[in-house]
TrEMBL record:
The lineage of its organism: Bacteria, Pseudomonadati, Pseudomonadota, Betaproteobacteria, Burkholderiales. This is Alpha/beta hydrolase. InterPro entries: AB_hydrolase_fold. Gene3D superfamilies: alpha/beta hydrolase (3.40.50.1820). It comes from Bordetella pertussis CHLA-26.
Length: 46
C-alpha cells in the first residue's frame, strides 16, 4: 500500500475489521461504512 499511496497522493487505505478477500460477504456493514465514507454519503446494508 505504501507504494500505491506514494504514486497516488491522496489515496486512502481503509481496513474493514473481520473482513478478508471478500469484504462485502465478510463484513457487510463495515463495507458499506467504508464505501459510504469514500462516496461522501452514508450507506447501509440491505
Amino acid at each position: 500500500m505504501a507504494e500505491i499511496e506514494a504514486l497516488a497522493p491522496g489515496t486512502v487505505h481503509v481496513r474493514v475489521a473481520g473482513a478478508g478477500h471478500m469484504i462485502p460477504w465478510d463484513n457487510e456493514e463495515g463495507f458499506y461504512a467504508a464505501f459510504g465514507d469514500f462516496l461522501g454519503a452514508r450507506l447501509r446494508a440491505g
